[in-house]
Amino acid sequence: MNKRILYAGIGLFSLQFAYSQQKTDSVRNLCLKEVIIIGKTGLGSKNEPKPMSSVDEYMEQQDRINLIKRGSYAWEPTINNMASERTSVTIDGMKIFCACTDCMDPVSSYVEVINLNKMHIASGIGGNPYATNSIGGSLDMKLYKAGFHKENVSASVNSGYETNGHYRILGGSLAYSNPSFYSNSGVFVRKSDDYRAGGGEEVQFSQFQKVNLMSNFGLRLSGNRAVEASVIYDVATNVGYPALTMDVKSAKGLITSLSFTKEELSPVFSKWETKLYFNTITHIMDDTKRPNVAMHMDMPGKSKTAGFYSTLQGRKTRHNFLLNLDSYYNQSLAEMTMYSKNPDEKPMFMYTWPDVRTLNTSLFAEDKYQFTARKFLQVSARLAVQHDRIRSDFGLSTLQIYYPGMSRFQNRLLWNVAAKYHYYLKNIQVKVGGGYGLRAPSSSEAYGFYLFNSFDNYDYLGNPQLKNESSWEGNLAFSATLGKLNVSLEGSCFYLNNYIIGKPDNSLTHMTLNASGVKVYRNLDHATILTSDLTVKQSFADYFIWTNKASYSLGRDDHNRALPLIAPVSYSSSLSFNRKQVYAELKLQGAAKQYKYSADYGEDQTPAYLIFGASAGYDFHLKTYNPKLKVGVENLFDRKYSTYSDWNNISRKGRNYYINLIINLL
Ligand SMILES: [Cu+2]
After folding, report:
1. CA 467 to chain centre
2. Ligand 1 centroid vs 249 CA: distance in angstroms?
3. Distance 165 CA to ligand 1 centre (A)
């Protein structure tokens, strides 16, 4: 007997579903927490106002995710108000580490919407077998693969234009599938000039351009076995960062993988996947276009990661389990050469990341125990061993000036446990969970050497003596449906011990001209972070949906002072109309004044703002092609504003009209 229970999700692109299939003596259960569909099913869907959005714009729509912006390209995602050091971003389970000491190139900047099928977001500890060193949450971007289906060829052309910044978007993809072979490839190009803030002022150095190429192949072998390979090559050039003092000449990412899968191995083991991967990121910064540069600097960075994972899934009676063995080796190296204006002075060279080599091996186990079709308990545990080594003798000796006797090697034992109880009643869903986990300091936190942070105007020195940061987490989610009304409330709280943050050290002298001083990473005794989201959704008159969202966050250090980069109260309301081929939406979005800003950590208060937008779409049904057309306007009243996470209060885009056209040729 097959039973399918489908729970409609919350939010425009999020789905939550539980699927259960009962056999005589075994129960199968699959529960995906939160999935944003971007690929074939989602891209160009009638419900998406702007299908050619960047990956960043997609992430911005999601609950729990906020983005730190240093320009109009490569925004850094935060989950539960925690940034890269405390979260994990993977691509199809592959570990990738950015090559920039200033976080100018988050992992999500190396993919395109055309590469992705969906994003799997997990809040807090647990929920993602591939997340390492994350306590805030994780994001696994799943690649779009044509898959083994009946013979089919498809091709599409995706294009877009936006008036603000003269932003051009063009992409094409071609896919072939049959039951034993598939292949899909694509190319995507984006190019934008400087954008204008509300009121019409040009934001200088906000231009960018990027090209993304991708290919996936799959071959089905006998005995339920398959081999799959993927390659992504992404190059961004001439990227301006108006909030920083430097731009990017080029950011290149080559991401490759080869995987081997066997399905239905035995009545107990349903799937075994082993993937080998390698990726290399090269990041070249550039200050040559900036006026009045006091001292020209070269700051290249590179990050190479090789790794594998092997995931075994199975079921036995009421248990549904997953085991994952995972290992990666990363090299992170960043240099800085400063050229004096005095030609007689020699350039000054240093390693800002001293060729750090990290080997991390972990074992993850998860079990979902099904009490009944509507009640189950999910438990997971991870144990990891991390070995760090500073390869560069020069980098080690410069760090030893500050930490005499520091070792070249470091070993850390990291672990986490999490549990969540899921209960589905007729119109009510409840999830309650908790966990405990540890993370190791990042390369910058442990070994960074005089990294200038323009947010608080301090040079930062890493600290190899940092303790692991730990987090106790509790979470609760509640959702109820009453006729056409759906209300959902989610909240998480984190109590962090040995919280890692930079603290001023007056005994040290800054290296960057005009910096306020030097901060050294320290462990605070504790810190607390709380996040919550409320969504109220009402359908009416057959074709209308009114969606209202509000979120509240809080972050405190051990002296009850505000932590930096914690979102103020924010809200949105949208009214959408959807009938046959026609789609339309009106939306308002805003945030309250940032009352709890962190002056101690370099923040100033961000004022309240409210912006409006509108969009409409039409799906043509022609004889051969079915073009989808979307038009819209963002920041309709051309309001000049910035949000709490805009680096150095850089202004957001002013009024922007856009048009997206998708044509499926085959
Ligand atoms: Cu950079």
Report:
1. 26
2. 9
3. 22
Name the strand (E) or helix (H) holding 226: strand 225-239
Ligand 1 center–CA 382 separation, angstroms = 32
pLDDT in tens, 491-502: 999 999 999 999
Distance 75 CA to ligand 1 centre (A): 12
**Other Cβ atoms closer than 10 A to 339:** 15
Question: What distance in angstroms lies between residue 67's CA and the mean position of ligand 1's atoms?
Answer: 17
Q: What pLDDT, on the 0 to 100 scale, is given for residue 34?
A: 53
Q: Say if CB 504 and CB 517 are below 8 A apart.
A: yes
- Ligand 1 centroid to Cα of residue 290, in Å, is 15
Domains of the chain: 2-664 (2.40.170.20)
pLDDT digits (tens, 9 = 90+) for 55-71: 999 899 888 899 999 99
Q: 104 CA to middle of ligand 1, Å?
A: 5
Other beta carbons less than 10 A from residue 346's beta carbon: 9
Strands (E), 163-204: 167-178, 181-192
Q: Calculate mean pLDDT across residues 84-96.
A: 96
pTM, 2 dp? 0.91
The band of 35, judged by pLDDT with boundaries at 50, 70 and 90, is: low
Strands 87-91 and 137-143, sheet pairing: parallel
From ligand 1's centre to the CA of 500, what distance in Å? 22
Q: Determine the Cα–Cα distance for residues 479 and 424; give it in Å rounded to an integer.
A: 10
Taking 50 as the threshold, does the pLDDT of residue 2 lie above it? no
As a whole number, the mean pLDDT across the chain is 91
Give the pLDDT mean for 27-41. Answer: 45
Quote the ligand 1 centre to 107 CA distance (angstroms). Answer: 13
Distance 189 CA to ligand 1 centre (A): 21
- Over pLDDT 90: what percentage of the chain? 82
CA 620 to ligand 1 center in whole angstroms: 43
- Could you tell me the distance, in angstroms and rounded to a whole number, from the CA of residue 467 to the centre of ligand 1? 27
DSSP-based three-state secondary structure for 457: coil
Q: Please tell me the distance between residue 289's alpha carbon and the centre of ligand 1 in angstroms.
A: 15
For residue 19, pLDDT over 80 is answered with no
d(CA 29, CA 631): 41
615: Cβ contacts below 8 Å, ≥ 6 apart: 49, 50, 583, 584, 585, 587, 630, 631, 632, 633
User: Rounded CA gap, 225 and 431, in Å?
Assistant: 36
- Number of C-beta neighbours around residue 30 at 10 A: 12
CA 270 / ligand 1 centre spacing (Å): 43
Q: What is the pLDDT of residue 30?
A: 40
Q: What are phi and psi of 107, to 5 degrees?
A: -50, -40
Residue 61 has what pLDDT?
87
Tell me, in angstroms, the distance from the centre of ligand 1 to residue 39's CA. Answer: 30
